[in-house]
Amino acid sequence: MSATEQELNAFRQQVSAWLADNKPADPGFLLPQSFMEVGTEQQLEFLREWQYRVWNAGYLGMAWPKEYGGGGVEPVFQSIVDQEMRRHAVPICFNVIGLGWAGPLINHIGSEEEKARYLKGILTGEDIWCQGFSEPDHGSDLGNAQTRAVRDGDEYIVNGTKIWTTMGNFAKYMILLARTNPNAERKYDGLSFFLSPMQVPGIDARPIRKITGEYGFTETFFTDARIPADCLMGAEGQGWKIAMQTLQYERGAEAGAAGGLAFVRVLINDMIEELRDMTRDGEPLLRDPVVRDQLVQLIMEEKANALCEKRGAIQALGTDYPFSLQLSHKLRFSEYGRRMRQFAVGLQGAAGGLYVGDAQARQGGFWQRAYFNNFSTTIGGGTSQVQANIIAEHVLGLPK
Amino acid sequence: MTVINNTSLAFDEDQAMILDVARDFCRERSPIGAVRAQLDAPLGYDQALWQEMVGLGWPGLALPESVGGSGLGIRHAVGIAEAMGRALLGTPLISTTLAAQLVARATAEERVDAFLADVAAGVPATVALLENPDWGSDQCQCLFDESGVLQGAKHFVPDAQAAGWFVVVTRHRELPALALVRADQLPAGAIVPHTLIDETKRAATVDFSGVQLTPDAIIAGEQVTVALCDFYLLGALLTAAEATGSAGACLDTTVEYLKTRKQFGKLIGSYQALKHPCVDILMAIDSARSFVYHAATLLEDGSLGRDAEIACRMAKAQAGDALLQAGDRAVQFHGGMGFTYECDAQLYIRRAQWSSQQFGDALHHRKRLAALLLDTAA
């Protein structure tokens, strides 16, 4: 039975009150704006503690089954929580690869045993998950992944290198795409999917320093690493199919995520308020006609993205280009984010040349850092250019 | 107050049904051959087809049942405009709908019922507004004297050739006023057709000099000013809806060509230099469509509020630019063929130039959006 509007409103008030009471105080160090920016133990512990509190209050994984730590209620409740979390500007729920990608995957296609073993730890934040898809030589061309997994008794021996492993140095588990059959006729059919432990000998996750100067990703080396054979998800050769399903969750094209904020949404309104006191030619910045027109275009883009997200749920308005709104979601939001943040840096006059660490940098260099970090969204999970190919081929039907 | 404070988007069953019917009707009755057949025709549309549209109740869709209308809201006309745009179907429907909205919003007096009833019965009507090409100008020299005789001309009057009624924007006691003029009141030669860039459309200069108004034909008072503001915004929105439909059809035409044309041994649609701009256009259209139906969600029978104004202006700015982009690339991506009159790309690029100017171009609306969004949010 569906919840009534009255129930939902009451629930929203309850969530809002809880968030107001429990929103953590400013820790005094820079908090990650997304799960891809967790660079220090200090940040990690802070976010782990927060996620646990959210789950413990019953506000995470609300639509996941009760027996695996979820709430067993309709997804609409979690949506309300997420909206309220955004409104209250609370920290992110950092275990995103578990909450948003691996979790829904296990929930939808995993065995009972896998669900029992993994889901609860994802929600509590105890078990951090990372993803081993991209390789140094195979980023966008994921189907060509070369990391090898060779069956040896009740183990697989893994050799190869993964890269852009978010929180690889903190993770307990990895969703791993590896090649079990190098001789398969189609390269895709040689791939298998593993729910692999990270803390085994032969796995070495080395932090990568990003353009921001900070950390958040690792390059992950497998050298004769032995993982239990029961880590294999599905059957050998199904890896590509399962990986594609995972990417659907990652790109927001399919529902099932546990909820919680994966990133702090940087809104144009924040930028406008932040820059309101700036001047240009000695006049208030917001009186400058060129700046005004640019800002209006950005506001329109942000609003269009929000409206397109809504329209995607209205069937009668989605018949022209089926899945267009779903498949373009990532491209829209990530590219908009990049342009908007770059513009915000550009508006700062000479201060736009300052960076995190300079006492005079506006908001501690927030926009500079946010602009750089945004590339993780236009590159990660399939670059914008690959996204454009996907939309061209799957929505418009253009040839490969 | 935030710069984005309203993202309502709803679409009711009536809207869905009307959109469905309109799309089927326009697709069947206005294939591209039929569109081309009207390009040289004086009125630019098939009168039998217009009568079918009247039969569907479209001119009176948003008029009260008391004058023969359907009693639905103006938001229900949005899907029809989009469907017509998709099929490049002209006809005076949009002009007529807007003229009726302007009058109905300007006064509730019974003396305009005859006009509204005519509209609902399918007599085309249009608003004679502009005296110069500037949509932001409030120049108004088309005035009537103490004995009710009009002097002055209006330019860019849409569908003037077909109109049975003109709603002339004039002034009375320093305030905007409207004058209802029947086509048969015009002296011979008063209508001088423009040659339009979009050959599916019609417009003319209309000289109203010498027309004798009866007191009943003059609508004055402060409500006229409010109604005119609504009229501008509804005009922008219906044009946006129409442009969104045209942009979709234009993109489809381009994509179809890219799927069939081979060069260097490959379908040209496989080249990313052509693929990616098509995706950009698709996303621009998706945005336009979202703005259009967001704006439709916010329309009321009463005067439009701030959020509705923002929505209508965004819809027009977005849809106009999306169609310009789609039309421009349609010509380019058809290669040499695209440069010919025979290629349908010309129909869309011409429509794009026309649409983008109606009720103000994107710059016009963004300038007003800047004031609405950046000056009041403090």
Automatic annotation (TrEMBL), chain A:
Keyword Mitochondrion applies: no
Keywords, alphabetical: FAD, Flavoprotein, Oxidoreductase
Superkingdom of the organism of origin: Bacteria
Acyl-CoA dehydrogenase/oxidase N-terminal domain span: 41-126
Domain Acyl-CoA dehydrogenase/oxidase C-terminal: 237-396
Keyword Glycoprotein attributed: no
Acyl-CoA oxidase/dehydrogenase middle domain segment(s): 130-222
Cellular component annotations (GO), alphabetically ordered: plasma membrane
Pfam families (UniProt xref): Acyl-CoA_dh_1, Acyl-CoA_dh_M, Acyl-CoA_dh_N
Cofactor(s) needed for function: FAD
Molecular-function GO term, any one: oxidoreductase activity, acting on the CH-CH group of donors
PANTHER family: ACYL-COA DEHYDROGENASE (PTHR43292), ACYL-COA DEHYDROGENASE FADE34 (PTHR43292:SF4)
Family: Belongs to the acyl-CoA dehydrogenase family.
Protein name: Acyl-CoA dehydrogenase
Automatic annotation (TrEMBL), chain B:
Family of this protein: Belongs to the acyl-CoA dehydrogenase family.
Gene Ontology MF annotations: acyl-CoA dehydrogenase activity; flavin adenine dinucleotide binding
Keyword field: FAD, Flavoprotein, Oxidoreductase
CC cofactor: FAD
Record keyword Flavoprotein present: yes
The name this protein goes by in its record: Acyl-CoA dehydrogenase
Keyword Cytoplasm assigned: no
Acyl-CoA dehydrogenase/oxidase N-terminal domain span: 13-122
Organism: Parahaliea aestuarii
SUPFAM superfamilies: Acyl-CoA dehydrogenase C-terminal domain-like, Acyl-CoA dehydrogenase NM domain-like
Residue intervals of the Acyl-CoA dehydrogenase/oxidase C-terminal domain: 236-356
InterPro entries: Acyl-CoA_Oxase/DH_mid-dom_sf, AcylCo_DH-like_C, AcylCo_DH/oxidase_C, AcylCoA_DH/ox_N, AcylCoA_DH/ox_N_sf, AcylCoA_DH/oxidase_NM_dom_sf
